[in-house]
Amino acid sequence: MDNEPIKKQDEDLSLKLFVVLTRAIQSVKKKVEEDIKEMGLNPTEFAVLELVYNKGDQPIQKIGEKVLIASSSITYVVDKLEKKELLKRRPSPEDRRSTYAVITDKGTQFMDEVFPKHREAINNICGGLNKDEKQTLIEQLKKLGYHAES
Predict the structure, then answer these.
(1) Residues 59, 99 contacting (CB under 8 angstroms)
(2) Under CATH, what is the fold of the domain 30-149?
(3) Domain ranges of the chain
(4) What pTM was computed for the model?
(5) Tens-digit pLDDT profile for the chain (150 aa)?
């Protein structure tokens, strides 16, 4: 029995999935970036600020892996957020080699104002799916990602 036509159909479907997934990501990312730019930040600055806002003080050396940006960019991003008075650096009391990014009062006030609007914008961007479809897609994309990593 020849499985070549079935294999080709599966390969074609995988290629189509890749193209559709890539286009969807680009569309969603573009809309989210537009929302972030309206706040006066770039996406990387927002990601770092959002991390510290939601998770508390963060060792600067560990921020890159948590927000998926190059560690070489972190110092630059923290510098920019410091100039905007949204973050500050604080030496670690336990380890002199380590420095923490700490949100300032101005940063907290800023995020208290913009983060609910950002959540709403993302909800609107994802509004093409209902709650059950979102949950199913989350599970399927996790499954796809874990498989791709292995």
Answers:
(1) yes
(2) Arc Repressor Mutant, subunit A (1.10.10)
(3) 30-149
(4) 0.83
(5) 567 888 889 899 999 999 999 999 999 999 999 999 999 999 999 999 999 999 999 999 889 888 888 877 898 999 999 999 999 999 988 888 889 999 999 999 999 999 999 999 999 999 999 999 999 999 999 999 999 999
What's the chain look like in SS3? CCCHHHHHHHHHHHHHHHHHHHHHHHHHHHHHHHHHHCCCCCHHHHHHHHHHHHHCCEEHHHHHHHHCCCHHHHHHHHHHHHHCCCEEEEECCCCCCCEEEEECHHHHHHHHHHHHHHHHHHHHHCCCCCHHHHHHHHHHHHHHHHHHHC
